[in-house]
Amino acid sequence: MRHLPGDRQPAEAAVDTAAMVRVNQAGEYGAARIYAGQLAVMGRRSRVANEIAHMAAQEQRHLDGFDRLMTERRVRPTLFAPLWHVAGYTLGAATALISPKAAMAATVAVETVIDEHYGAQEDALSDGSDPELLAMVKDYRADEVEHRESAAAHSGENGFQLMQAAIRAGCRVAIRVAEKI
After folding, report:
1. What is the DSSP code string of 148-160?
2. From residue 58, how far is each of 8, 39, 142 by CA, in Å?
3. For residue 174, what is the enclosing H or E element?
4. What pLDDT tens digit does each residue of the chain (181 aa) get?
5. What's CA 109's distance to the chain center, in Å?
6. What is the rounded CA–CA span in Å between residue 68 and residue 57?
């Protein structure tokens, strides 16, 4: 088969599991920082804060899993980890300062994008190329969907659409950046 300039070469068409591990680790790191910022503002005394603490513990499990995989597979982290550190915490703290409902609306926005992202990875990995990564993605995706549904129950449906759209857009950009850099 003849390839034209710009055509994907067969090697490029393969699933890039290193990029998946890198971006997933970066995302879980960012999520852990968001929850840390929210909890720093809210404390741990309210029902919403207890729910956030539960989500944070699950995100830490996800982060630990991807940290382990990065080490085992010698995958370099994103160069933007320091930015995710600050941006995640700032997003969490800022939304919690607005209100607990805003904090939960932010969680809905983030987890909506992560569900889509992990869904695309499940599809790509369904070829059997990396059963370990596929199992992790499926497991963690179920937690992310649970987080979104729980947060939606606490955030209400009104008042935060613009904020959520901006957060979703930011998450999508962060995913693309972490895949490459």
Report:
1. HHHHHHHH-SSS-
2. 38, 15, 11
3. helix 161-180
4. 444 554 444 444 468 899 999 999 999 999 999 999 999 998 877 778 888 989 999 999 999 999 999 999 999 998 888 888 899 999 999 999 998 889 999 999 999 999 999 999 999 999 888 999 999 999 999 989 998 888 888 776 667 989 999 999 998 988 888 888 8
5. 11
6. 17
Encoded tokens for 176: 């693309």
Q: Which residue has the tokens 């971006």?
A: 23
Token output for 35: 């929850």
Note whether 158 and 167 are within 8 A (CB): no
Name the one residue in this structure whose structure tokens are 């390839």: 3
Q: How far, in whole angstroms, is CA 82 from its chain's centroid?
A: 16
